[in-house]
UniProtKB/TrEMBL annotation:
Entries under InterPro entries matching the protein: Gfo/Idh/MocA-like_OxRdtase_N (IPR000683), Gfo/Idh/MocA_Oxidoreductase (IPR052515), GFO_IDH_MocA-like_dom (IPR055170), NAD(P)-bd_dom_sf (IPR036291)
Domain called GFO/IDH/MocA-like oxidoreductase: residue spans: 132-255
Species: Paenibacillus baimaensis
Any Pfam family: GFO_IDH_MocA_C3
Start and end residues of each Gfo/Idh/MocA-like oxidoreductase N-terminal domain: 6-117
Protein's name according to its UniProt entry: Gfo/Idh/MocA family oxidoreductase
Length: 344
């Protein structure tokens, strides 16, 4: 079976999910890991039987590496992705694709300029069973027209979480709960709802004021071109990491997601459509179980020579909504969508 030589840059917490997925896939051959912490890089390399580097540009010189995963700090995604693409290698970057619009656009341009390789963006929650089932209901029209949606994320992050140098700062993280923890839920709302007509939102720092520059709470109101609306709320100021909640109201029923469970409320009867799955990641359970599904799908597309569906422009969609909530909060104005342009 054909395999693709793989490398991972950045060996923080999220890299464990990528490492496990790559190790379990028959489509991949982990050749190298990269981290500026040499001891960490060496330990991981010994565990997975591969080479290690502290300078990713040295790794990019290797001809036996075709795919690079980016698991680094937000502000490093764009410059690293650009270097990887220019080196003629495919890149799969963790969310968010960048820390601001300008950096994301540079990444997108680099992908256009290097059409022989593919840029993929991690939004693994689209692969979750409840997400897939909700998308099917939206597209089939089985429950009639989609009327409205809500997405709720109530998690907890303490001051200790932000002791990592790049977190909690606009220049390096690009934001707080909105761009980091809840971007997946924002992405699901826009993926399920379709083309957006406007976004209005605001952010605040409630429990971590004086600790971080960025927000720990955010809310938004989203209008879609098909007439549907959505409300969104996220906070890191809750006392625990509660299951994410998503609700879709149709003309003929309501879908209720809580964590990995999905229910259909129709004619006063509640039916269970999806039940929780056992977490075998050995990582934070609220990350979900679908990283491996997306990573497998990415490699299958590469090996088949097919464009990956969550590419740069598709990954940009959810990211753009996040950026527009920040802009709306800054200006106090609704962000109106007009084709590819955004005007206040």
């Amino acid at each position: 079976m054909t395999t693709l030589g793989t490398a991972i840059i950045g060996l923080g917490a999220i890299s464990g999910v990528h490492l496990k997925a790559i190790a379990d896939l028959e489509l991949t051959d982990l050749k190298a890991v990269v981290d500026i912490d040499e001891n960490r890089a060496r330990q991981v390399a010994e565990e997975y039987g591969c080479d290690y580097y502290t300078d990713y540009k040295e790794m990019l010189k290797r001809d036996d590496i075709q795919v690079v995963h980016l698991c680094t700090a937000h502000y490093l995604h764009s410059p690293m992705a650009i270097d990887v693409l220019r080196a003629g290698k495919h890149v799969l970057t963790e969310k968010p694709m960048a820390e601001n619009i300008a950096s994301a656009q540079k990444m997108l341009q680099a992908a256009v300029e290097n059409p022989n390789v593919q840029l993929g963006v991690i939004f693994q929650n689209r692969y979750n069973a409840p997400s897939q089932r909700m998308k099917q209901y939206v597209e089939s029209g089985e429950l009639g027209k989609l009327i409205c949606m809500k997405g709720i994320v109530t998690w907890n992050r303490t001051a200790a979480y932000y002791e990592t140098e790049w977190k909690g700062k606009w220049a390096t993280e690009g934001g707080g709960v909105l761009i980091n923890q809840s971007i997946h839920t924002v992405d699901l709302l826009q993926w399920l709802g379709g083309e957006i007509s406007s976004v209005k939102g605001s952010i605040s720092t409630d429990s971590l004021e004086g600790v971080i520059e960025v927000e720990d709470s955010a809310h938004a109101y989203i209008e879609f071109k098909n007439g549907a609306t959505a409300i969104f709320y996220a906070t890191n100021a809750y006392g625990r990491n509660s299951p994410v909640e998503v609700e879709l109201v149709f003309e003929q029923g309501t879908l209720l997601q809580r964590g990995d469970s999905l229910y259909l409320d129709q004619d006063g009867k509640l039916t269970t459509l999806e039940e929780p799955v056992v977490n075998t990641l050995g990582e934070k359970s609220y990350w979900g179980m679908s990283h491996e599904l997306q990573i497998r799908d990415y490699y299958e597309h590469l090996l088949a020579g097919k464009p990956f569906w969550i590419d740069g422009p598709e990954g940009f969609n959810g990211f753009r909504v996040v950026m527009d909530i920040y802009e709306s909060s800054r200006t106090g104005q609704k962000i109106v969508y007009n084709g590819a342009e955004v005007a206040l």
